[in-house]
Amino acid sequence: MSDQIILSKNSIGVGDRFAHQAQAQLQACVLADKAGVEVIPVWNKSNREHNIIGSEPISLRAAADAAVKALGWTKPYHVDADHINFETVDRFLTPSDFYTIDVADWIGKPANEADVQAFVAKHPELNGKLDISNTSSEVKLDADYVAATASKYLAAVKEAGRIYRKILQAKGDGNFIPEVSMDETDSPQTPAELLIILIAIADEGIPIQTIAPKFTGRFNKGVDYQGNLEKFSEEFADDLATIAYSVAHYNLPRNLKLSVHSGSDKFSIYAPMRAALTKFNAGVHLKTAGTTWLEELIGLAEAGGSGLALAKEIYASAYSQRDALCAPYATVISIDAACLPLPATVEVWSAQQFVSALRHDQANPAFNSNLRQLLHVGFKVAAKLGPRYIDLLEEYEPVIAKNVTGNLFDRHIKPLFIA
After folding, report:
1. Taking the complete model, does pTM exceed 0.90, yes or no?
2. Which of 64, 174, 178, 182 is close enough to 4 for a disulfide, judged by CB 3.0 to 4.6 Å?
């Protein structure tokens, strides 16, 4: 595997809606390196986001390359074709070297019965108690459970294989990092289900380096984890144990690790994640998604003048379009419309008031998680402003960059990777 692209132990997926903050994001990884911890940046942007912004995947590659050159970064870095499927992957084949293969929509689609029976017959070792170390409870399976789980997930794995082979044909063996994502679905996968999924992926011949399961609780956009933290902690540790077992017993890459699609700012889960990662000496890929866009808004508001005015205008427009903006993200936001301030109220806010409402500081009584979630999904408003928005990003770059770097390093990298 020496000639293959191998994802480092600790990596962080950073979203950049408007491709202007790559250098500020990379600076957070530079700070981690200075603190003695290697955290590799992976710039990600989905097909949907490109379509909304009106950008092409090559723009993200160009931004990442420019940031690396500007800061003299000599460690690895990657560009992720985020949440692609068979139909959307083509435009990412040239610029990307990391592919989040999203097959969540295939979960539960009836698998071919012959495929199910072949899987059960191939894996008689799954019938009985499995010796998986360091799990919260014993894992004991039978043929009926294996068949039912295979029936639920095999179609998704087969589709992942189809997409993987399409990328493989274009990129060549070892020239990209495959991830399989099953997180954007209704029900979390149990560790036993994850094991069967991983074995099926191994059988399919996909050398995944990261796997993104669905976890217990809500991972709403831009706000903290909502759910049973004890249950999440147990589930996360059990998944690490399952991955270690799968790597040891099946033909999966030795660096296979969990990918946590956090929706950003899941501060309360970082401590238990860090404890489990330390226990298992495991790595993780953390996707922080769209908080960069929010830090841009915070920077504009802090700058005052035309920056604050535009931030207020964007909020007013997002408020008036909230139903349409929120609809595509219904499963990953939870907004109480009654708690959204009226645009007329926001219009007379000071810079400090706007920033206090938007910045994710739960100790600040002025913080408004409803406003934050609305603006998180409201980047479409800024996209329609075109040069008006981009010009201000460039005018107020120093204050925006300070917020982007500080948010990524202080609120995400430090508590998870450095503590």
Report:
1. yes
2. 174
